[in-house]
Structures are given as structure tokens and as C-alpha cells.
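Morning run. Coffee first, then this:
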Amino acid sequence: MTQENLKKIKEISRDFFAKMDFGIEVEVRASQDSAVDVNLKLDEPQKLIGERGQTLAEIQHLLRAILRKQVPVDAPFYVNVDINDYKKKKAEYLKEIARSLADEVSLTKKEKQLPAMTAFERRIIHLELASRGDVVTESIGQEPKRYIVVKSYP
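And here it is:
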């Protein structure tokens, strides 16, 4: 990601959120693996986060589509939009649940099922438990009811 492209992404993102008239503070920075982080700060974040982060996911999808059309880059890039560190806090919470559940499965040898989750949430669980040798994870079902099962390693 060139500095010129990053500057253009910042400009487009700020214009996009300025039109919402929520008094949003926008910070854009390059991240790892061809990703661009768009961090938002506002007083009433729930309006843009929505139930279980659904509105935030839709905003991210829309902004990504706009940026991919307006920013000429050779390689595709990922756009990660977060509001008041919602995703960061959610990821830490999910990692804690994953570790706790994995410990329980490891002790009891009985598989446990997590509730249906988004792909983003499932990925966090899978990555958190991937390095453990005592449990395995598996996603089961169809969207939007896809969930994870944590099993004892055979």
C-alpha cells in the first residue's frame, strides 16, 4: 500500500463518515497483510454497531466496495472498520470464552457447542485454539446459523 493510496483512503473514508452527521472522529492507518484499519470514535456507538455488530459489518462492506472502486491498487486490500474498539473488545471476549471452553473440553472429554456466530467471530475462535494440541474446532451448519463445536483431540 503506497502512501498516496493510503492518503486517498483516508480522504474517502472521512468524506463517507462526515455525511452521516454523527460527529464521528475517523482515524485511518495501514495495518498488516495489506489491510487498512478505519477506527471511528463517537458518543453513541450503538447506532452504528447495531445488534451483534450487524450494522458495523454492513458499513464495512459498503466502505470496502467504495474504496475498491476509487483507489487504484494492484493487489486487493482488506478494510477493517471498528467503532470505539468494539471489535477489539469482542475479539478479546471471544478468545477468553474459547480458552475456557477448550479447558473444559480437555478435562471432560465431552464436546461443546458454541452458539451461532458470524464468520469473523468463528475465525477468532478457530485461530485462538489452533495451537492447542488437546482440542480441535469445527464449524458446522449453514449461514446464518453456522456454529463451532470444540472437541477433544482424538
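The chain has two domains: 3-84, 89-152. Good start to the day.
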